[in-house]
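Journal club prep — side note

Before the paper discussion, L.F. wants everyone to see what a predicted structure for a comparable chain looks like in token form. Sequence:
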Amino acid sequence: MGDPKRRRPKAQAPRKVWDSDRIKEESTLRREYGLRRTRELWTTMAGLKSLRNAARQLLSLGDEGERRGRTLVDKLKRIGIAKKDMTLDDILALSVRDFLERRLQTLVLKRGLARTPAQARQLIVHGFISVGGRRVNIPSYVVNAKEESTISYFKAIDISIPEEEKQEKPSRAKAEEAPAKEGAPALEAKAEGN
């Protein structure tokens, strides 16, 4: 039957692992887009890097590269990243956020099908979200521009907050302060009585 294909890593770890500025930026993006681990971000960055390299290579070819580069721009238009009049130079200006905005997890949150990025991820993984009537359980699925309007629930679910949780519950800090204030005069009276 033959040997199985050797799987190659899709993510590329950064060269300088302990760079505090990069770590802060990555943690901000992870929180904002609800990524489970930094490797998801690195995978997106690796895809962006290969796209930029292809654009640079095509730009160096001159007119021939511009002609061949139209297929690359058309691909980005299908995904929904490129605008109508995008050129190869504009590909070099793309950022990681442009690609993270096209993930299914982000689009589920933006369409109001979930309240938080974590809930959007949970709904997708548990099979509650469909794209074009087909169940998709991969949060990193890149949604095409045509498919964006077809994102919906695969099966009915109520994500509204229950009435008990809507009522303001005392926070933990307030709950700890209240008994201390109430018990303080009793302790003072007891101390005076001795």
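L.F.'s comment for the group: The chain has two domains: 9-102, 103-158. Keep this in mind when we get to the figures.
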